[in-house]
Specification:
alpha/beta; single chain; globular; 121 residues; five-stranded parallel β-sheet
């Protein structure tokens, strides 16, 4: 079973995303910020990460830069799932290294499509 790590500082949203991931047929785990993500990646690398952009401690943009700078993690697929939907945010996110950039509120069908696209492509 493919493993997806959800990085979201809001516990209610994190649980919602984990429930969606599970309903899509994947094993999900959650952490609360980019620092927790990087610590978890030292232990085990999932098949895909779904990450918020705005978080305390280490935000999503800082975390994706560190992931892309790490030779052993460069291949890791990462979806941004964020409330940042201003003009230019999507382009900035994709240029920063995210493989997909989705905005909240969560569109379950779109999230599932992007997960499947990245895991099979």
């Amino acid at each position: 079973m493919k493993r997806i790590l959800v990085v979201e500082d809001n516990p209610a949203i994190r649980e919602l995303i984990l429930e969606l991931v599970s309903s899509f047929g994947y094993a999900g785990q959650g952490v609360s910020d980019g620092a927790d993500l990087l610590a978890r990646l030292e232990e085990s690398v999932p098949d895909l990460v779904v990450m918020d952009v705005r978080m305390p401690n280490l935000d999503g943009l800082q975390a994706i830069r560190r992931i892309r700078e790490n030779a052993s993690l460069k291949h890791l697929r990462v979806i941004a799932l964020t409330a940042s939907a201003m003009r230019g945010d999507r382009e900035m996110g994709l240029q920063s290294g995210f493989d997909a950039y989705l905005t909240k509120p969560i569109d379950a069908d779109l999230l599932q499509n992007e997960i499947e696209r990245l895991l099979t492509g």
